[in-house]
Amino acid sequence: MSLAKTSVGIVVIGVVAAGGYYWFHERAAQAQRMAASGAPPVAVASAQPAPAAPPANLPDANADIKSTRDAAAKAAATAKATAPPPVDAGLPLKSGEVLDFTADVAKVSNVADLRLQIAEKRNFLGRNAWHLQAFAHTQNPLRMVFELDDQFDSYSDPGSMTSLQYEMHLSERGQKVNSVQHLTSTGRDAAPPNASQTHVLPGTRDPLGMMQYLRHVDWTKMHQVQGPVYDGHKLYDVRASLAGSGQSVTVPAGTYSADKVEIRVFDNGEEMKDAHFFVYFARNDLRTPVLLEAEMPFASARVALKSAH
Predict the structure, then answer these.
(1) CA pair distance 241, 81, nearest whole angstrom
(2) What percent of the chain has pLDDT over 90?
(3) Containing structural domain, residue 118
(4) In this predicted model, what pLDDT tens digit does every residue of 8-24 receive, in sequence order?
C-alpha cells in the first residue's frame, strides 16, 4: 500500500480504505479456499486471527527521498499565475483543539479512529509555527489483518499554513518508518540535524496544513482555491471547490449545517481519477470539519466526527 494514495487533503482515508480493501479481499479469498476444499466456514476467535499476507512495502526512512524539483517545475507550469487567495484572518486556529473521528469502509463500521489535533503555536527554528497533529489507529476486525498506528506532525506558518516541516511516524503491520522532512523553496533554509531537506514550490502545504487552510477559506466569497501540497513523497496540485452550501449533515457528534467542498488532486497536470474526495465544514465559528468522504474503485470511505473539544 502506498501512502501517496492518501493523496493529499485527507491523510488517513486512503490508508483506511486500502486496509479495508485488504480485509475484504482476504475474507473473500478465504471463503474461496474453503469452498474449493469442501470444508464449511469456521469462525475464528479474535485471539487467533487468520495469518495476514506478507507485509506491504513501506518507504525506507534511511533511503534518500527523491528530489521533487522536476515535479515542482511541472506543477508550476500548470498552476495559475495568480497569488493564492488569502485565508480569513478573523478565524485563528484554536490551540488545544481535538477532533475525534470514526471511519467506515463500505458496509463495515468503525474500522479505524482518526484524531486531528492543534497542539500549540510555538517557536520553530526561530519562526512562529502551528504544531498540527494527526493520529490513526485501525480497530477490529480490520486490525486483525491490518494493524496500523500512525502519527503525522506538521509545523506550519500561522498566516498562510505553508509547511515548514512535515513528519510521518508510521507503524503498519509490524513495520515502522520515521520520516522528518524540512521543506524549503529556496534551499537556503538549513534542515535540523534530525531532518532531511526537501525542495518544494513556494506556498507548498502539507496535508494537515491544507486541511486547516481550507477551514479558514470564506466559501461565501471564494468558490475555488488551488495550491501545491506535499504528502511526504510527492508534490501535487490540489484544487478545492465549493460543491454545496448549507447542507444538513448528521454524524455521531450531532447534526450540522455544513458547506460541502470537493477536493481534486493533480499529478504532473493530470487529474488522479482513482479517488474522489469531499470534506464538509460546519457553518459554526470554527468551521469544524465534520465529515470526510472518499469514493474509490474498490470501496467508499466515510470518516465522521465523533467529538470536538
Answers:
(1) 18
(2) 51
(3) 3-308
(4) 334 444 444 444 444 44
Locate cell 522532512: which residue?
181
CA pair distance 16, 292, nearest whole angstrom: 12
Query: Is pTM, for the whole model, over 0.90?
Result: no
Residues 6+ apart with CB under 8 A from 224: 239, 240, 241, 242
The CA distance from 101 to 290, in Å, is 8
Count of residues in the chain:
309
DSSP state of 17: H
31, 215, 259, 55: which is closest to 145 by C-alpha?
55
How many domains does the structure of the chain reveal?
Answer: 1
Where are any strands of DSSP class E within the chain?
Answer: 98-105, 108-124, 127-138, 149-156, 163-172, 175-184, 196-199, 224-230, 235-251, 254-267, 270-271, 276-282, 289-295, 300-308
